[in-house]
Amino acid sequence: MGGFLIYFAFLLIIPLWAQSRVKGTYNKYSKVANSTGRTGAEVAREILNQNGLYDVQIEPVRGKLSDHYDPRSKVVRLSEDNYYGSSIAGAAVAAHEVGHAIQDAEGYAFLRFRHALVPVANIGSNFSFLLILGGMLLHAANLFLLGIIFMGAAVLFQLITLPVEFNASSRAMDQIVATGLIRNNEERGARKVLNAAALTYVAGALVALLELARFIFMFMGMNDDD
């Protein structure tokens, strides 16, 4: 019993720690103005234009850290603080989302693979636990296995997300440095913001892997009992 409590505490602490890191780092550097005075929207537009992506639009969106790139509409959406603000954090986040737009334009393999996995991953996220629970209650190994397969698809989606996010951050740093959108002494802050954000994806993938492994071991134990 104690081991299970420690395990579930571990699963809870990892994401909370990652979220705390990203919020703390973002809050710190969102209060530090970048030396060029460019808003997040201007940073995004400059990088998009430098890469010939004139058709990609930039829009403000409500919410904190709600920034994302919409590949269907070809729109970079920045939270209002980053869209209108001129902080180091805002510049880093804007450049990161533009990194996804560049990936999309170049047909980046991991991004295309992730897009292809979306329907299956959504099914896995929504129904895998119900299938596993049903398999446990009904002692139905096939139902349990189906749940594991769907969960595996959702976990694979999270794993594929890691290179997509790390690559977008790498592109972001290259772009904002090469274009002079941030100065040398600001690079460290921008990198900290991007690294902290990446931690949330790493934490999510780690937790998902641990849960998948737990259910696989449970399924193997079920078969041994039979």
Automatic annotation (TrEMBL):
Q: What keywords tag this UniProt record?
A: Hydrolase, Membrane, Protease, Transmembrane, Transmembrane helix
Q: Does the keyword Magnesium apply?
A: no
MF terms in GO? peptidase activity
List residues traversing the bilayer: 116-138, 143-164, 193-213
Q: Does the keyword Membrane apply?
A: yes
Q: Which GO terms describe its biological process?
A: proteolysis
Protein name, as recorded: Zn-dependent membrane protease YugP
